[in-house]
Specification:
The protein has one helix and 16 strands. By secondary structure, it is mainly beta.
Length: 203
């Protein structure tokens, strides 16, 4: 396998279409990224005089484009670490003996200020979808290819009294919502096949 280059976001930050302060840009030229996110890169350039790197994403698009995004270097880390697959949701469900809900132990008393306790880990290249059906049945604006090695922070409910977070399973797909990120204009109610992904607690 060719060397995989990824960008790890060490804290909440913003990807921008220009290397300037994010509040100076319109919303269609910036994308909020929660800390803990890990994205696969197609290419990147060394830091410029403004201490930003210019990058292009592999497959994934924000605001309609994957190219020429800028990230502040102190908020990110470029990594060439190999992919470390995690237990798939399908395997977790088998252990839990469930079918319609997967539960994750978070062992946290409180949520971070903006939430975000769990990451969705893509063990292999797959497609997230607006409905739990075969991807060929959906239009391009209702699906998005995601490369292996991607990790996305989920927006979830608070843990229950047993410190577990429950996520719904429908037709062998995890139903999920993304924290801060918008893909194809949507952040909520995406689906992904449970044999292609796993869940990982942040921190």
């Amino acid at each position: 396998m060719a060397s995989l280059v990824r960008i790890r976001f060490k804290q909440d930050t913003t990807l921008k279409q220009e290397p300037i302060q994010s509040h100076l840009l319109p919303s269609n030229k910036r994308q909020e990224i929660p800390g803990g996110t890990l994205l696969v890169l197609q290419s990147y350039a060394p830091p410029d005089s403004t201490n930003h790197i210019r990058l292009s994403l592999e497959d994934l698009q924000f605001k309609g484009t994957s190219k020429n995004w800028y990230a502040f270097t102190e908020h990110i880390q470029i990594t060439k670490e190999p992919i470390k697959p995690v237990e798939t949701i399908a395997q977790t469900l088998t252990k839990q003996g469930g079918k319609n809900v997967v539960k994750i132990n978070v062992y946290r008393q409180t949520l971070p200020p903006k939430g975000g306790l769990i990451k969705l880990v893509f063990n292999q290249e797959t497609i997230i979808k607006r409905a739990p059906v075969q991807s060929q049945l959906l239009t391009d604006d209702a699906k998005q290819q995601i490369p292996a090695g991607t990790q996305l922070v989920l927006l979830t409910d608070k843990p229950d009294v047993d410190k577990k977070i429950a996520l719904s399973i429908k037709e062998s797909h995890l139903q999920f919502s993304l924290m801060d990120l918008e893909v194809k204009g949507f952040s909520q109610d995406w689906y992904v096949f449970i044999q292609h992904v796993g869940l990982k607690v942040i921190g």
